Amino acid sequence: MKYLKFLLTGILFGIILTKSEAISWYRIYEMFKFQSFHMYGIIGTAIAFSMVFMYLFKTGIITNYLGKKVFIKEKKKGLTKALIGGIIFGLGWALAGACPGPIFVLIGHGIFPILIVLIGAVFGAFIYGILSKKLPH
Predict the structure, then answer these.
(1) What average pLDDT does the segment 69-84 reach?
(2) What is the DSSP string of 58-96?
(3) What single DSSP character describes residue 100?
(4) In Å, how far from its chain's centre is CA 102?
(5) How far apart are CA 130 and CA 137, in angstroms?
């Protein structure tokens, strides 16, 4: 019962992605061809909300589910790493037609070929876990 709030948050997230058409391959295609502002507006809104929530986490106004302050480790800034990671993420997004967030929503909608993308994402995370100690961070 204590995990019910996480399930409800996930369901709400899926509804928002569906209603905003963020799971639509055509919307993603339009975005990568710079034909529509729709997805950029969604991403911009997500960034704005993230900035507010990061501030609330850092000030201790919002705590984790155990009531403890969330500690956010500072990351080293690096343009090259951000560009390479962004390019890899964008290429994967463009090839798959979905970023990691909507994968489960698409499965819930009965679009089962996205299972290939899910398997690839899990495999990629597994490989990263193996190689992470050898990669420059």
Answers:
(1) 83
(2) HHTSSB-TTSPBPP-------HHHHHHHHHHHHHHHHHH
(3) S
(4) 8
(5) 14
